[in-house]
Amino acid sequence: MISDRIKSNLRQEFKTSLLPKVGLVILIAIVFMALFAPVLATHNPNTTGHFDDGNAYPPIGVSYDSYEVVDGEREPYTVEFSSDHYLGTNNVGQDVFSRLLYGARTSLLVGVLGTGLAVLMGVPFGLVSGYYGGRVDDAMMRVADVMLAFPSLVLALALIGVFGSMSIPVPDPIVTAGFAEGMPAATTLPGTVTLVVGLVTWVWFARVARGEAMAIRNEEYVKAARSLGASNATILLKHVLPNSLTPVIVLATIQVAAIILLESSLSYLGFSGTTLSWGYEIQQGQDYLRTAWWVSTVPGIGIVLSVISINLLGDWLRDSLDPNIEGEGGGA
Amino acid sequence: MTEDILRVNGLSTRFFTEQGQVNAVSDLDLRIERGEVVGIVGESGSGKSVTARSVIDLIESPGEITEGEIWFNEPDLADAVADDYPEAVDGSFVNLLEVPKQVRRSLRGSSFSMIFQDPESSFNPSLTVGEQIAEAVEVQQRASANPRSTRAKTQEYSLGRLMLSTVLPSKKYVSEASRERAIELLELVGIPDPVERADEYPHEYSGGMLQRAMIAQALAGEPDILVADEPTTALDVTIQAQVLDLLDDLQDETGMTILLITHNLGVVARMCNRVGVMYAGEIVERGTLEDVFDDHVHPYTEGLLGSIPDLESAGGRLEPIPGNVPSLLDHEMPDRCYFADRCPKAMEDCLSHPPEYEGRGTDEHEVRCVLATQEYSEARALSADYFGKDDRTAVDKHADPDGFEDDVQPERAESTVEGSGGERR
Amino acid sequence: MSADDPLVRVDGLEKYFWENDSVLDRLLGDDPVPVRAVDGVSFDIRPGETLGLVGESGCGKSTTGETVLRLQEPTDGDVAFDGSSVYDLEGKSLTEFRRNAQVVFQDPFSSLDPRMTIGGIVTQPLEIHDWPWTDADVESRAELRTDGISADIVSVTVDDDVDKLVSPVDGVATVHVTVRSSDVAGDVDPDERGIAEAEGAVAEVAEDLSIDVERGDGIEVHVSVGRSTKQLRLDRARDLLERVGLSVDQLDRYPHEFSGGQRQRIGIARALALEPEFMVLDEPTSALDVSVQAQVLNLLNDLQTEFDLTYLLISHDLSVIRHVCDRVAVMYLGEIVEIGPVDELFEDPKHPYTRALLDSVPRASTDERDRERETLSGDVPSPRDPPSGCRFRTRCPKVIPPADLEIDQETFRELMTLRERVESRDISLETVGDEDEFDLEGGTVVAADADAFARALKGRLLETELPPRHDEIVEDALASVAVGDWEEATERLREEYESVCERQNPALEADDHPVACHLYDEEAGRREAPAPER
């Protein structure tokens, strides 16, 4: 479906600029971390109280001063890092590194599934609206406009209120196969959040698909198909859909990043169905920012890196695919 | 009275693309006399537009003029640059390729100006037509107040001034005099009610009107040479006739010189004194209109004329040129007559690249074809499948490196067209 | 249906597009504005002929073509194909119409789906119409010839569905089978389709079918289609590509790998796939270079003869029309102004528009410069607000003035233009006269200055000197304009100068060479003298 021309363009763009390479390397690393979290993790991320002294332990190479109250007297002492916990522990004594890995799982899972849901809802909606035009389009796009009128976070919160919280345990094949003892046997997919981010972002896909469909329906090959007697369904599936995919793909990449952010915001606000989430982790750590800064910072870096890397790839896709929509038509 | 205004010698323009070197224009000679209309005719991808842009110095990367001389006859300019660039001056002629870019740029508008095929994209949709023409007038006036200085043109019309003029109307770049001149120009090109029309925006103009407005803009600097690149291709015939009439009248009145680039042989016949026929980056036949239309030697000229359905009489089968326009990629251009593979009269002699021979018409008539020196002989003819079916496997994308000739899409893939051999006579 | 009946009959076809027609516009109370793309067009296309539809851009010729094919629903009017109305067709008969009427578009770059292979594009019509077709009522039969073998020992069975490839005659699809002894047949290539060998016997089928032969007690021959539907379609696509002059090994390539002329050939192959009777050619060569245009025109010509096609050729290029068409209809602003046989229309054009159109085309000959030509002034009016009466009157060099008006055509033309501007109030008063010569209060001139102002305005609007009587009338009217009374001015001018051309839209007479122009309108001719020639 992707022509050689596009492939060569992708290669060309990739070769000439550094940024997509950086993005790709980071993203591969994050995906790798998420996939093999049970193997890579040093501890079960849910296990609390690795140290029962109530201190959050710092990452390797860091120490901080604390004190203990003994008989009404402050007794200062230094909390040293433990080489067992690469990135330290949080305030309830959970391993930050392991939680980072598992957090990546949640983020990517919600990002990809949420985007997939949005594509599945938005693209058919947009294609039908744009292809038929007229009254159909008027009506359908008003629905979409209403969706767009709400700030996505507010809309998401409202929808969570409607659906309640729903957590779906997904069995972890690595653990089930016995490769990682002591790790959680299932990863929790925050079902409501996934549903909600899909519902919040589908409109963007609808709008992009509609724009494409409106342009494509006037192409002569669509008229030719119609004059051959092809049904509207055939034309939508065989001509309009394949030719409108390029911008949808570009948008999808960028939306994955946006959804990761949205998921983090939601779990930061406490609306996630799982505690193994970067956003939740940031919220947990925010009270200790002055002393145990790593508890919030580490997942924060995770969010920043994954969003940036995906956006870099999205830009690369856009730059290499977009001119080609015309380039292909222009031939020369 | 006939004095050359422009002499182009051995001009080669190349484009350095990913696919390789594209020889858009090769070893091209052109001579234009003051006050005449010279036409360059050819199909898409023949290099005619690139020729025009080379002359007027509008070649941009990845394109480059790699060889040749462009001698422009302008005594004032010759005096001005004689001290600094003695080797670029020959009498009243200046070799434009030997003087610095700024000097060349300063000639745009005042010595050369250009009109394009698509007037709609040549105007800024958010400014009135009058304002845009007045701007062109202003640029030229400032330049002539301070000749040969590009600062006058470029620096004063900077971003800062633009922003200033938006805030403070009194600081507008364009003076009242320029505005009046713009209205005069609009009247000159036959726009009714120029006073009112000057205040309208490009979208309120029809295609024909906009083309007139573009001509007005090109005339702002009273250029010596007007380069018209497919000026009527986007227009309907009745409007085309109006625009051609206009160009004709303007030329009569101002005596300016026109270099007309077109694919339409009818337009050439209507406008030009002398014609060059381009094929694969070369002028393959040149001469007076009569030389080329009535006394042509080159089989390509013959084929081009034979391809046009006759308006005056009906029927008859057309005699098209078989095959497609060739690739201009350097490594796909063998050392032979570039037309030989499509030529119905290809002979063994065509396997070496022909120089320009004297044609059989006037002194002006020159032809890049061995048929100028010898008769076609069956005995020496190449067999119909000499070049084979796969000779030209060049694909579309090689063509037209920067979309210069995207007006009509180039023909440039395998020669699989009907009866590639059968069409030969 | 007799041979003289038209294949396509277009009757009073109208197609309007509506502007300002969205829900929002309704809410804001904007009335929809009709754009009269096609406004009452009638013509016939006879079987086997090529009708040309010529006109400038925006005259509605392409919309006509698309509406005839029911790619657009008409606003009014009817198109009958083979005697039945195209817009009433449903279900099976609509499918049949879609099979019989095809279209080739102008733009070789947008008419092929960039994401489909050439094979996919050319087989698409076959897929949609479920080709190859087989009819259960058609019988299959074999005609057997033998050579060196007794016919008695040969038994032939033929599959029921061979009518997919063999067209039946009187309900019977006949295949021709030859069975030879190996001695007679010589060496055969066993991989070739339609030929099979078994122990001393070689069987061959003349049609494009597969054959099996088995030797038992006798010789058993079996004829079948032998290929999957998909394979059959690809084979057909190959044949079609070959027919339009492309090499057959390009089925897996994508459109962008082809040049404009080649793409146009692919589009033609797609249109031919279902063996239609009628093809609309919408500017089929406009995007091509002349030499390639000539190739495509020749191809279309050959195909017409070979497949008995009827063409509707839409083009703005008069020389193409002249070369290809049998009859020509000239369109202007949504209406047909003249229809006639191609030679008659080109050699003796009646309508002033047709004449001007022909005059405007530059000929590729050395006499071109000295040719007498009469070109049109002005632009085509907007189809949103077409002129009253004859639509061409705003540009016509031969407008008919009212009877006994003693001014010449050129002056009358100017007066028409002046009137139009008064009627549309398209005259700006601010710029009249020298600076500060006239005081404008609230957009109008004070009454005392009105006469002087009118003279100044007249000087600007009219180039020629008018005879005294008319001078007075015009100044009178312009004085009304000066004081802001546009209606009065409009009325005054209309009274004096209204032409039949603006009152009445001339009808296209039923005739061999009908023309819609009042100059040929006998009644009008008697009532009002035709304008003197310029």
TrEMBL record, chain A:
Its main location: membrane. The chain crosses the membrane at residues 21-41, 108-134, 146-168, 188-209, 248-271, 291-313. Keywords: Cell membrane, Membrane, Transmembrane, Transmembrane helix, Transport. Residues 104-314 form the ABC transmembrane type-1 domain. It is a multi-pass membrane protein. GO terms for cellular component: plasma membrane. It is found in: Cell membrane. One of its GO terms (biological process) is transmembrane transport. Belongs to the binding-protein-dependent transport system permease family. This is Binding-protein-dependent transporters inner membrane component.
From TrEMBL, chain B:
SUPFAM superfamilies: P-loop containing nucleoside triphosphate hydrolases. Pfam families: ABC_tran, oligo_HPY. Residues 409-425 have a biased composition (Basic and acidic residues). InterPro entries: AAA+_ATPase, ABC_Ni/Peptide_Import, ABC_transporter-like_ATP-bd, ABC_transporter-like_CS, Oligopep_ABC_C, P-loop_NTPase. GO terms for molecular function: ABC-type nickel transporter activity; ATP binding; ATP hydrolysis activity. It is found in: Cell membrane. It is an enzyme of class 7 (translocase). Residues 393-425 are annotated as: Disordered. The keyword Transmembrane does not apply. Coiled coil: none annotated. It is a peripheral membrane protein. Residues 6-305 form the ABC transporter domain. One of its GO terms (biological process) is peptide transport. Gene3D superfamilies: P-loop containing nucleotide triphosphate hydrolases. Its EC number is 7.2.2.11. Its main location: membrane. Keywords: ATP-binding, Cell membrane, Ion transport, Membrane, Nucleotide-binding, Translocase, Transport. GO terms for cellular component: plasma membrane. It catalyses: Ni(2+)(out) + ATP + H2O = Ni(2+)(in) + ADP + phosphate + H(+). NCBIfam families: oligo_HPY. The complex is composed of two ATP-binding proteins (NikD and NikE), two transmembrane proteins (NikB and NikC) and a solute-binding protein (NikA). This is Nickel import system ATP-binding protein NikD. It comes from Natronococcus amylolyticus DSM 10524. The lineage of its organism: Archaea, Methanobacteriati, Methanobacteriota, Stenosarchaea group, Halobacteria.
From TrEMBL, chain C:
Keywords: ATP-binding, Nucleotide-binding, Transport. GO terms for molecular function: ATP binding; ATP hydrolysis activity. Residues 8-358 form the ABC transporter domain. InterPro entries: AAA+_ATPase (IPR003593), ABC_transp_ATP-bind (IPR050319), ABC_transporter-like_ATP-bd (IPR003439), ABC_transporter-like_CS (IPR017871), Oligopep_ABC_C (IPR013563), P-loop_NTPase (IPR027417). Signal peptide: none annotated. Residues 360-393 are annotated as: Disordered. One of its GO terms (biological process) is transmembrane transport. Pfam families: ABC_tran, oligo_HPY. Residues 365-376 have a biased composition (Basic and acidic residues). It comes from the Archaea. Gene3D superfamilies: P-loop containing nucleotide triphosphate hydrolases. CDD domains: ABC_NikE_OppD_transporters. The keyword Nucleotide-binding applies. PANTHER family: D,D-DIPEPTIDE TRANSPORT ATP-BINDING PROTEIN DDPF-RELATED, TRANSPORT ATP-BINDING PROTEIN. Belongs to the ABC transporter superfamily. This is Oligopeptide/dipeptide ABC transporter ATPase. The lineage of its organism: Archaea, Methanobacteriati, Methanobacteriota, Stenosarchaea group, Halobacteria.
